[in-house]
Specification:
Distance between the termini: 104 Å
Strand content: over 45%
Structural class: alpha+beta
Helix content: 10-25%
Number of strands: 25
Largest sheet: 25 strands, antiparallel
Radius of gyration: 28 Å
C-alpha cells in the first residue's frame, strides 16, 4: 500500500522535472538564437530581421530575413521549427533566396529541383549547435548566359564565441556563349572565434579548388589545384590580414600539353589598420542602415559621412608585407623569387579625399603616399634585358618612392606603350 501511495508523488515529480526541462530547453534555445543573431549583426556586414516568432514549451517556430547591411539587392528568407527536448532541441526549416526587381531582371530565372531544406540540433547543457544544409542542383539563365551549380552541402557547428563552417560544392559551371568556366569540386573551411559584439575576433579560412578549367574554341586553360588561406585578427589596436595563395600547374594543352605555364605560391600580410576606427565605421554603417531606406543600395552622401572614419583607419600607416613570391614558369623558363614591403604615409590625412578617388589628380595624391622596396633574387638574364640593365645583373631591387618605381637606382622604364 505504501508503494502505491508513492506512485502519484513520483509521477508528479517526474512530470514537474520534465516540464521544467522542456521550459529550460526552450528558454536556452531562444537565448542562444538571439545571441547568434546579435553576433552576426555585430560583424557589420548583415542585417537580420525576425519577421515571425512563436515560442512554446514543446515547440517554437519563426521566420528570419538576412540581407546585406546596406541596401537589399537580395535577401535570404529562412524559416525554422524547433522541437524542444530535455537534453536537446531539433530544428528544421527552409531557405529561400529573394531578389529585388532590378537584380531579378538582371539575373533572370532561377530553377531548382527542390526548395533547399536545412536541419540542425541545439544541445541544451553544452550550448553547442549544429546545422546542415543541402542544396539541390540549380540553374540561373540570362541572355544566353548560364550558371549551373551541381549540388552543395553546408555544415555549421559550434558554441557561443567559436564557430566552424564547412561548405562543399560539387561543381560550378558558367557558360557565356562559346566560353565556359568550370570550378570544382570546391571545399571551404572556416573558423570564427570572438568575444561579445565581435569587439575582438579571429577568423581562419581555407578555400581549396581541386580544378579550374577555362575553355574557348581556340584554346583551353587548366589549373589544378588552387588553394587560398587567410588569417584575419581584430585585436585592441589593429586589424591584420594574412593570406597565402598556392597554385598548382596551370596548363595550356593546345600549346604545351606536357609543360606547365606557371605554378607557385604567394604569401603576404596587411597590418596596421586602426582597430578603433574599424569598429567606429561598423557602428556608423549600422546606424546608416537603420536610418536609411532599405530599398536603396547606398544612401545619398553616405561616403562623405563615412570619410573621416575611413581615413582614420589608415592613421597608423598601414603596411603590406610580401614575404614570399615563388613562381615558376617551366614553359617560359623563368623563375621569380621575390619579397618586399609597401608602406602608406598617414601624415596629414585631411589632405586626402575618399569621395574624389574617381579623379586622376586625387589618385596621384594617394599614390604619392606609397613607399617601399621589393627584391627579385637571382633574376633571369632576360629580365635584366627587359629593364635595360647590364646582362650580368642577378638581383633586381625595386624601390617605390612617393609612388614612383625605380629598379637598381634607375627609373623603371616603360615596358608597355600607352
Amino acid at each position: 500500500m505504501r508503494k502505491e501511495r508513492l506512485i502519484v508523488p513520483i509521477l508528479a515529480a517526474i512530470a514537474i522535472v520534465w516540464m521544467a526541462g522542456q521550459l529550460l530547453s526552450s528558454v536556452l534555445f531562444e537565448r542562444s538564437l538571439r545571441q547568434a543573431l546579435e553576433d552576426l549583426e555585430a560583424r557589420g556586414e548583415w542585417r537580420v530581421t525576425r519577421t515571425e516568432s512563436s515560442r512554446g514549451w514543446l515547440s517554437s517556430q519563426g521566420r528570419l530575413l538576412l540581407s546585406p547591411l546596406l541596401g537589399r539587392p537580395w535577401r535570404l528568407e529562412l524559416t525554422y521549427r524547433a522541437r524542444h527536448g530535455i537534453l536537446s532541441t531539433d530544428v528544421e526549416g527552409t531557405l529561400s533566396p529573394r531578389l529585388d526587381t532590378v537584380l531579378q531582371r538582371a539575373v533572370g530565372e532561377v530553377t531548382a529541383a527542390s526548395a533547399p531544406r536545412w536541419k540542425g540540433r541545439y544541445h541544451t547543457l553544452s550550448g553547442r549547435s549544429e546545422l546542415q544544409l543541402a542544396l539541390a542542383p540549380f540553374i540561373i539563365q540570362q541572355s544566353g548566359r548560364e550558371l549551373e551549380v551541381r549540388g552543395a552541402r553546408l555544415r555549421l557547428e559550434g558554441v557561443f564565441g567559436d564557430w566552424r563552417l564547412r561548405v562543399r560544392l560539387d561543381q560550378l559551371s558558367l557558360i557565356d556563349g562559346v566560353a565556359q568556366l568550370t570550378l570544382g569540386p570546391t571545399l571551404l573551411e572556416s573558423r570564427y572565434t570572438y568575444i561579445d559584439d565581435a569587439y575582438h575576433f579571429t577568423q581562419r579560412d581555407h578555400l581549396q579548388v581541386d580544378s579550374v578549367a577555362l575553355r574557348y574554341p581556340a584554346y583551353a586553360i587548366q589549373l589544378a589545384p588552387l588553394s587560398l588561406q587567410s588569417y584575419m585578427v581584430l585585436d585592441e589596436s589593429e586589424l591584420r590580414i594574412k593570406g597565402e595563395l598556392v597554385m598548382g600547374d596551370m596548363m595550356v594543352p593546345s600549346e604545351a600539353p606536357d609543360t606547365p605555364l606557371i605554378n607557385g605560391r604567394i604569401e603576404m600580410e596587411l597590418s596596421r589598420l586602426n582597430a578603433d576606427a574599424i569598429r567606429q565605421t561598423i557602428r556608423r554603417l549600422r546606424q546608416e542602415a537603420a536610418w536609411g531606406d532599405t530599398s536603396l543600395p547606398m544612401a545619398e552622401g553616405l561616403l562623405s559621412r563615412l570619410e573621416p572614419d575611413l581615413l582614420q583607419i589608415l592613421s597608423d600607416s598601414p603596411r603590406l608585407d610580401v614575404s614570399t613570391v615563388a613562381l615558376n614558369s617551366p614553359l617560359l623558363g623563368i623563375r621569380v623569387d621575390a619579397d618586399g614591403a609597401l608602406f602608406f604615409d598617414a601624415r596629414k590625412l585631411d589632405q586626402l579625399s575618399v569621395t574624389a578617388l574617381d579623379k586622376t589628380d586625387e589618385r596621384e595624391r594617394w599614390f604619392e603616399r606609397l613607399d617601399g622596396d621589393f627584391m627579385w633574387h637571382d633574376a633571369p638574364t632576360v629580365a635584366a634585358l627587359w629593364l635595360g640593365l647590364p646582362l650580368g645583373t642577378r638581383d633586381l631591387q625595386f624601390d617605390v618612392i612617393r609612388g614612383s618605381w625605380r629598379v637598381n637606382g634607375r627609373p623603371l622604364p616603360e615596358l608597355w606603350p600607352q
